[in-house]
C-alpha cells in the first residue's frame, strides 16, 4: 500500500498488525479556509484568532489579566448616586429612583416634566412667579361740570402691564381705585364711579356749598385675558360721573391701580 502527500501508512495488514493510515494537514493550508467575522480578528500570517474590540466611544470592554474579555466595574457593580438605583445587571438595571404619586389626579395628565439641559444636567419645570406693582396719578381739572348723563367718562388712566415670567402664562389681578373731588352748591347733586358702575351719589340738601366731597371707590378684578410669557398688555382704569345737577362740578381725580401677576 502506498501513501500520498501528507499521508502515512503503517502496519502489515495482519490481524495482529493492522494497517494504520495517518494524515497531517499543515496550518498554512487551513488558514486559507478561515476568515474573520463580526467581533473576531484573524491574522492570516500567524493564524492567531482574537476578539475584535470596538473603538466606539463609551465602550468599556477590554482584555482582563487572565486573557479573557472583561468589562471593568466598580466592585463588581455600577456605582449609582442620588436619584439612581440598580447595579447594571439584568435583574437590577440602572434606573431613576422615583417616589410614589400621592395625588388623586392622573400622573399621565398632570405630571410635570424633567428635561436635560445643554450641559447634561437634569432640570425640573420652571417655578411659578408672583409679582406686584402699584401705579398712581393725580390730575387737576378747571372746574368741569358733572355731566347729567349717568356713567359718563370723565377721564382714563392706562398702564402697560408686563408678565415678568418668560416661561409661563400669567393671570393678572387688578385692584382699582378712583377718587373724584366734587363741589356741590346748595341743592346740587352728582354721582361718580368706575366704567359703567356708579358707586357714589350725593345730593346737597343744605343751604351752603359742599366743597371737596369725594369717596375713594375700589374694585378688585381678574383681567379677562391671560398674559402670555413676557408679553405686555394695557390695563385702563376709567373714572365716570353723572346725574350732575344744580351746578355740581369736579376739579380733581386720583387714580390708583395695583396689579398682581401670578404665573400659572
What does this structure look like?
The protein is mainly β and 264 residues long. It has two domains: 53 residues, no CATH class; 134 residues, Jelly Rolls. The chain is built from two helices and 19 strands. The strands form seven sheets. Strands 11, 13, 16, 17 and 19 form a five-stranded antiparallel β-sheet that branches. The N and C termini lie far apart (101 Å).
Summarize the helices and strands and which ones pair or pack:
Blueprint: E1 7-10, E2 20-23, H1 27-31, E3 40-42, E4 49-51, E5 62-63, E6 69-70, E7 84-85, E8 95-96, H2 107-110, E9 115-116, E10 122-123, E11 130-145, E12 152-162, E13 170-184, E14 189-194, E15 197-203, E16 210-213, E17 216-222, E18 232-245, E19 249-263
Antiparallel strand pairs: 1-2, 3-4, 5-6, 7-8, 9-10, 11-19, 12-18, 13-16, 13-17, 13-19, 14-15, 14-18
Question: Any key phrases for this structure?
Answer:
about 45% strand; about 260 residues; mainly beta; Jelly Rolls; four-stranded antiparallel sheet; single chain; rod-shaped; about 5% helix; 2 domains
Q: What's the helix-strand series?
A: EEHEEEEEEHEEEEEEEEEEE
Oligomer classification: single chain
Low-confidence stretches are: none
The largest sheet is:
5 strands, antiparallel
What is the CATH class of the largest domain? Mainly Beta
Gyration radius from CA atoms, angstroms = 46 Å
Number of helical regions: 2
Shape: rod-shaped
Annotated CATH architecture of the largest domain: Sandwich
Number of domains: 2
- Name the average pLDDT: 88
Helix content bin: under 10%
Beta fraction: over 45%
CATH fold name of the largest domain:
Jelly Rolls
Structural class, by secondary structure, is mainly beta
Distance between the termini: 101 Å
Q: How many runs of DSSP E, i.e. beta strands?
A: 19
